Amino acid sequence: MSCLKKACPGYVARAEEARALARRIACDIIAPKSLELDIACQKDPRYVDWDLWRALNREKISVCMIPKPLGGLGWGFLDIFCAMEEFVAADVSITAFFMFNLFGPVCAFVEFTPEICLSLIRDLVMAQREERPLFFAWALTEPSCGSDNLNEEALATQKPSVRVTRAPGGYRVSGVKHFISNGSLAERILLILPVDPEHPKETFSCFFVRSDTPGFSVGRVEHKMGHRAKQTAELVLDNVFIPDSDVWERPGRGWRHTMEVLAVSTAAVGMLGLGLARGALERCIAFCRENRAGGRLLIEENWVQIAIADMHRRITVLRSRLYDFAVAADTFLVTRVLNKPLVKAALALAPERAVFSDALLALAGNPSLSKAVSGLKHREVPDEIVAWFKSQGACAKVSGTDLAMDISSRVLDIVGLSGAAHGRGMEKIFRDSKPSQIYEGTNQVNLLSIFQHEILAGTHGRG
Amino acid sequence: MAGAELGRIVSECRRFARKEVEHGLLAADDARDASWVAGLWKKSLSLDLPALLVPREHGGAGESDLCAALVAGSLARWCAGLASVFAFHFAALRALSALPENSPVKARLFSAAASSADPAMFTVILPDPSAPELYEIKTQNESPEISGRSPAAGNAALARFFLVFAKDEAGILNLLMVPRGAAGLSFGPDPLFPGLCANPLLPVAMERIPAVSSNAADAASTARAVLLAGGSKAEKILETARNAFFGFVAAVAVGLAEACFEHAFDYAKNRYQFGKMIVHHSELQRMLGRMLQGIKVGRAAYTRVFEEDSAVFPNAGLGVFAKTWCADAALSTASDCVQIFGGYGVMHEYGMEKRMRDAKMLQLLGGSTPWLLVESVKSQLA
User: Fold this and answer.
1) Is residue B275 less than 8 Å (CB to CB) from chain A?
2) Which residues pair with A173 in a beta bridge?
3) What SS3 class is residue B28?
4) Which of A153, A222, A413 sits opposite B369 (nearest CB)?
5) In the β-sheet with A204-210, what is the strand arrangement from edge to edge?
6) A168/B contact by beta carbon, under 8 A
7) CA distance linking residue A317 with residue A337, whole number of Å
């Protein structure tokens, strides 16, 4: 980070600011709620602590990716990663509860059509100011297709259960999506599914749906091992009509959309893993400094010292790799477009009311303009760059979540039964770590993707 | 006991578990309420489980430790929390067995466990190498008193008798029996451990509970602790009880792992991905094979714990290694099982995440693997 600081002082200063803000939020807002919320959500998986949501909303976390002149925090990937580590070390499920909402802006920026981006920015900023919840959900998983959707080969051979039929002016969708993060709270949903179940890869699409659309309903909210403060829900689609205007990616283009979203979301899950591991280790060290066995403090045991140092080593190495990823993402993915001097100058100069006006939104809906702007972004972020990041994201995801699982289990072995009480927080991190090895593609499927991209395709070592 | 007879007992246990345990175990796990286990404890009378290790001359079934281990393992296929109740109970009975035959307290306690109407549940609180000394005996006005606190004791919510090891001021180890009604015995709030929730482990505090000799006239009092053995006898009983407890926990871990393997194997035969059922992928086969490795070696290890020690096949102190191997294998198996189930694995209603939480607790009971391994070498240095 120190070399980068010399080269790009402003960029690093913003990340340090993000970390400082996140650390304060983690200490003052998240940590005090962590354990009580875990118990409350175990009893009632639909429970939401709206006071907590309001406190986080006031800190503008929901609009952190929106440029500053438009009312957001203007965070890029490095800022988000720095903040996430702090949030997750305090509590991963509360972090997921509000940070997974970034699927909204990330998906919009991936599309990069002026109408989608402008309307989403306006709605998010207004909702934040009015203290009105506005949740997004990214609905990929189906009962028969989980990780299948994250691997090209598995996607091509999957048997999707959701059915899509062409209707005048749009599509009709029936079926069930499940294990959808924040699905029970989301007002806006991005449905990722194939139009033709016989040719899933060739017809993979991205549809935008509002929760008040006739035929849309929320099924059950799952009772889970961990990540309890983040609701995981079943979405039921009963002949839901989606107009052509709400097709974000037409059949056949959904795979690219999915890859670009996953490129950053898998790496972000790797960051969750790092935060979990750090949170577990910090709690373990505090326990070992206070508690004794055989007349000695646990921290005085030679094997405990070696184990702690080893865990610290692994966390430090992975952190460095994840920050490298974030810097590369800011340099080559969509935030590079937002950081272009022309875009920044335009945002800085244009009055907010003009940017958010209906007139500009109507102009943004012009198909030619949409095509031109979206095309410009796709040239800036070509498919081969996306594929590289998808592979690197998978590496980060597997490394981070395996580390979390390993360290969260290992610290319990060190602290023993006394340290495994709920109030110590370590058993919760153990429970929270396991799901992270599964969502955003099981680690096995991610490893296969790495093999296919890095080894079979012969790109190994080019990074 | 002949293998056929053991097989019959295991089959009966499985039938019992299928009928009585399967229904309600997830709700009990959620509720952390010992009343579910209390009901099953009474129902287990139909199989004579509470008195399984009580000698026949005291009205019990007089079965072997291996039989008890197989029973605990069978129950663990459904609920490790319930199985752990029997692991603590059996280990306590094993400690009592080591007392002299003419001990009046021993006869009385065995009779209580063998009661056909209301069998008493026992537990044993063993030292944990990752925690400080739990209890100590101090003499006040020539009367010994036991004080201290265990952060977590199995069967604490239901046990009628607690077997406890405590050193006196001279550093001599003693074995005591503390009845549930003893003045000064209290239980802390549920620490909310991640697993074995059907048998919530509770802190057990003892505040100056007077202890009397087992020959004393008031040894049958329900308000006092009774000194059952001291010195080298107590050391020997501790070794016996720990070895048996670790063997029983190993059996519970293997039972849990067997269930995980079977569920994962069935699921893998029905889940389609990459154009075929996932059981046909060699990585899945490797994962399932590793589960079998843990289970088969674990089963061989814990059965060996309960066989005769001999110069040709020594097994003294094998319990700790069987326990650490089996508990580690159980966690690895349960974690891989959850992984194979994917999203379903972490959902409560499928029961796999519960098994993973239970497996983690089995690793911690009586000391986690690294602590026990360090201790095993330290004890050889002493």
Assistant:
1) yes
2) A164, A240
3) helix
4) A413
5) A135-139, A186-194, A204-210, A247-249
6) no
7) 30
Burial class (CB in 10 A: 0-12, 13-18, 19+), A74: buried
Please state the domain extents for chain A: 2-133, 137-252, 255-333+381-456
Q: How far is A380 from chain B (nearest CA, A)?
A: 33
Instruction: Using a CB–CB cutoff of 8 Å, tell me whether A142 touches chain B.
Output: no
Confidence at B219, pLDDT banded by 50, 70, 90: low
CA distance B46 to A137: 53
- Restricting to B residues 10-39, those with a Cβ less than 8 Å away from any Cβ of A are 30
Query: Nearest CB to B132: which of A148, A293, A430?
Result: A293
B367 has a chain A CB within 8 A of its CB? yes
Is the CATH number 1.20.140.10 carried by domain A255-333+381-456?
yes
Distance from CA of A68 to the nearest CA of B (A): 37
Residue closest to B337 by CA, chosen among B359, B322, B321, B364: B359
| Structure confidence at residue B217 (pLDDT) | 67
Which residues, numbered 37 to 66 in chain A, qualify as contacts with chain B under a Cβ-Cβ cut-off of 8 Å?
39, 42
Q: Which long-range contacts (CB under 8 A, 24 or more apart) does A196-201 make?
A: A196/A164, A196/A251, A197/A159, A197/A160, A197/A163, A200/A155, A200/A156, A200/A158, A200/A160, A201/A152, A201/A155, A201/A156, A201/A255
Report the first-to-last Cα separation within chain B, whole angstroms: 37
Which of A320, A285, A283, A319 shows the shortest CA–CA distance to A301?
A285
- The answer to whether domain A2-133 and domain A137-252 are alike in fold is no
Q: Which residues of A touch B342 (CB under 8 A)?
A: 146-147, 438, 442
Second-level CATH architecture of A137-252: Beta Barrel (2.40)
Interface of A with B in 391-410 (CB under 8 A): 405, 409
A443 and B CB contact within 8 Å: yes
Q: Which residue has the tokens 């000695």?
A: A296
> How many angstroms separate the first and last alpha carbons of chain A?
19
Question: Rounded to whole angstroms, how far apart are CA atoms B22 and B210?
Answer: 42
Q: How far apart are CA B221 and CA A427, in angstroms?
A: 40
Query: Which token pair is A148?
Result: 């299948």
Q: Report which of B379, B330, B375, B321 is spatially closest to residue B128, judged by C-alpha positions.
A: B375
ipTM value for the complex:
0.97
**What fold, for A2-133?**
Butyryl-Coa Dehydrogenase, subunit A; domain 1 (1.10.540)
Per-residue pLDDT of chain A (463 residues; tens, 9 = 90+): 678 888 899 999 999 999 999 999 999 999 999 999 999 999 999 999 999 999 999 999 999 999 898 999 999 999 999 999 999 999 999 999 999 999 999 999 988 888 999 999 999 999 999 999 999 999 999 998 888 888 888 888 888 899 999 999 999 999 999 999 999 999 999 999 999 999 998 999 999 999 999 999 999 999 999 999 999 999 999 999 999 999 999 998 888 889 999 999 999 999 999 999 999 999 999 999 999 998 999 999 999 999 999 999 999 999 999 999 999 999 999 888 887 888 888 877 877 888 888 888 888 889 899 889 888 888 999 999 999 999 999 999 999 999 999 999 999 999 999 999 999 999 999 999 999 999 999 999 999 999 998 998 876 555 4
pLDDT at B86 over 70: yes
Are B45 and B116 in contact by the 8 Å Cβ rule? The answer is: yes
Is A104 strand, coil or helix?
Answer: helix
pLDDT, residue B181, reads 95
Interface with A, mutate which of B136, B192, B283 (most A CBs under 10 A): B192
The per-residue pLDDT for A378 is 86
Cα-trace Rg, chain A:
22
Q: Is residue B220's pLDDT more than 80?
A: no
